[in-house]
Amino acid sequence: MSIQQTRQGFIFQDYVAIEVFLRRYLERTLREYYVDYLYDSKKEYSHDIRYVVQEGGDSLQHCIEVKTGDSFNEAREKIGKALKEIYEYLMQDKSATYSLYISKDFEKKIATCWEALRNLKLSPLVKISSDQKQKMDYLKKLPHMSKVVITEDNMKDFISRLEIENPSLDLEYSTSHMEGIEAVIAGLIHKVGTSILSVRLDIANNQLALPHQLTQEMVYITSVHAGTNINILPLYREAMAAYFSIANEEVTHKPAQIKTNQKEFEKALMEYEGLEEVTNQISISQATDIGVLEP
């Protein structure tokens, strides 16, 4: 079964991907962005989110695993499997860092595991105390983790390079909380428009100016390109430029100016990213031509 075939109901992950993208984008260091990035085709292992940032002269990779839902027994099985895959990847790639994002409802179902991780992250792992060893041993005995031989030094390295986080998007994920989730993303969208493009949204007179319009376009881009290992940063950028060109109150009554503004906005976003020209990047129109997007 392909990654895309298993993505039904992954709206939580898609919204997390959009929030993380917008936050990293505003930092001006983001260079590549992927969702369900396949890195081991034989085992069908993938990173829920993978992105590359430029810091100084170095390109640094960061990956994110997103977990939500499930029964108590399924949650323990799922967190054990996730930690095993993250551990093996971090041991393989010593330059990578990883974040584990979980929703509040999932945290309650893995409370002992989450508390062990949190305590190990908060205390320095130099001379291991009996309490720290007990928590490490607990993690080693989780489903799937128990199949891996983990030395104390490797466990310390694993914990130091793993960040544990609750997405700011929700308290307890359910479809009834979509409005709250979109409000967080809408605030980030507004910040991109005002701080980078100096755009004032004409929400009062233009329904297309609602941030929901861009959010849904980004959800579509995310879901369509999940598992393709295509860098979707250029697609998000083009979607943002298109949205702000329509939502800008200065062009509400000047439809002929929208296309010109879109090109100008896309150029401005590229300059913000530190790019002088587009090279080897797939636009939405190109993606349609090669069959990546449905026409």
Concise structural overview:
This protein has 295 residues and is an alpha/beta fold. 49% of the residues lie in helices and 14% in strands. It contains 11 helices and 5 strands; from the N terminus they run αβββαβααααβααααα.
Q: What can you tell me about this protein's structure?
A:
The protein has eleven helices and five strands; from the N terminus they run αβββαβααααβααααα. The protein has a five-stranded mixed β-sheet, sandwiched between helices. Residues about 170-175 and about 275-295 have low confidence and may be disordered. Helix 8 runs antiparallel to helix 9 (about 235-245). Strand 3, helix 2 (about 70-90) and strand 4 (about 95-100) form a beta-alpha-beta unit. The chain has about 300 residues and is an alpha/beta fold. The protein starts with 10 loop residues before the first helix and ends in a 6-residue tail after the last helix.
